[in-house]
Specification:
The protein is α/β, with parallel strands linked by helices. 39% of the residues lie in helices and 20% in strands. The protein is built from twelve helices and twelve strands. 42% of the residues are buried.
């Protein structure tokens, strides 16, 4: 089976061609962080992305005879986890999503490319708005507001399945607390194949990260909103993209921050330690959701490549359960694995409605 995987991101678009389980070709197509945002319309952004991917395939002499094209899903409406056939309703929901993100373009690209190839399936799996929260996890204390989740569902489940296989078990039969450390930080309680509690890692929940502010003092945020110092859009940018370490240090690059720490920058060290503390507190809080029945705590994401950050988190939470780290992201492999499982008939292909 030949599978094309497309994963649009803010600063790069990753593509890969898998032949069954093996990656025959993989490339990260870099673009300027603001390049997509400077394009005025969704159509312009889509055309930019489509041309970027097609040129890479052409330049590397890759024939478009795929059995499936799978894209990382966008931030449309909340849906349960799993693999979904891409249809026009999904594309419309993604392109019209309230939360702008390059992944919103991926489903349209996969759908249109697949439509030009005989018997080629277009699908996505575990997009960023997978919602399996317990009803009690949605309550906020203010009836006008309820908890929603944006998180790294694809990578969470990828590392959970890897750990489960390592211990000769199944993800669906285990309980995990999983933390993805990236530009956004998501911490979820996974119970027998469902993420029953997880924060909003996109625009206002959980720990602050390298560029997101996380949970903020509510009354102070309201006062700031009416202070006249900022527009609504400016405050939203301070929450997503210009918050966290970036707001204090002027960089969202953890490597640069750690370089400053090593050179004796006390403020940088305090901020990294504060981020670690917030992540650790969130992990410990999720243990209550699982009533303490935790098979393992798993850490993943780009920041998990940093030994100091991982070891400091481990120091604070490993008393709860066995602790394991899976540095980086496994989204490309997870998308390919799910597409292959669908093609083989080993995984249900859900219909988006």
């Amino acid at each position: 089976m030949k599978i094309l995987v497309i994963n649009p991101g803010s600063t790069s678009t990753k593509i890969a061609v898998f032949e069954n389980e093996s990656a025959a070709y993989s490339r990260s197509l870099h673009h300027d962080r603001d390049e997509l945002s400077r394009l005025k319309t969704i159509d312009d952004q889509y055309t930019f992305l489509k041309n970027l991917v097609l040129k890479a395939l052409e330049d590397n002499h890759i024939t478009c005879d795929f059995d499936a094209i799978v894209a990382r899903g966008g931030l449309g409406k909340p849906i349960p986890g799993g693999a979904y056939r891409i249809n026009e309703l999904m594309i419309s929901d993604n392109l019209g999503a309230d939360h702008p993100h390059p992944t919103n373009l991926g489903t349209k690209l996969a759908y249109e490319l697949a439509s030009t190839i005989p018997s080629c399936l277009a699908l996505t799996a575990d997009p960023g708005r997978v919602d399996e929260l317990l009803p009690i996890a949605r309550i906020t204390g203010m009836p006008e507001l309820h908890r929603i989740c944006f998180w790294h569902a694809l990578n969470h489940r990828a590392v959970a399945r890897r750990y489960a296989a390592k211990v000769n078990n199944r993800y669906e039969d285990m309980n995990f607390i999983i933390c993805h450390l990236g530009g956004g930080i998501s911490v979820a309680a996974h119970s027998h194949g469902r993420a029953i509690d997880v924060n909003n890692a996109y625009d206002g929940g959980g720990s602050f990260s390298t560029e997101r502010s996380g949970t903020l003092p509510s009354a102070d945020l309201v006062r700031l909103s009416f202070s006249g110092k900022y527009t609504e859009q400016q405050l939203l940018h301070k929450i997503t993209g210009q918050g966290g370490l970036y707001a204090y240090l002027g960089t969202n690059d953890l490597r640069e921050v750690m370089r400053r720490v090593e050179e004796g920058d006390e403020q940088a060290k305090i901020l990294v330690d504060a981020m670690v503390l917030n992540v650790s507190k969130q992990i410990c809080a999720e243990s209550a959701i699982l009533c303490g029945h935790i098979d393992a705590i798993l850490i993943t994401g780009g920041m998990s490549r940093n030994e100091y950050v991982v070891e400091e988190i481990k120091k604070r939470v490993s008393f709860l359960a066995p602790f394991a780290c899976y540095p980086g992201e496994f989204e490309m492999e997870a998308l390919a694995e799910d597409a292959l499982a669908v093609l083989k008939g080993d995984m249900e292909l859900k219909e988006y409605v």
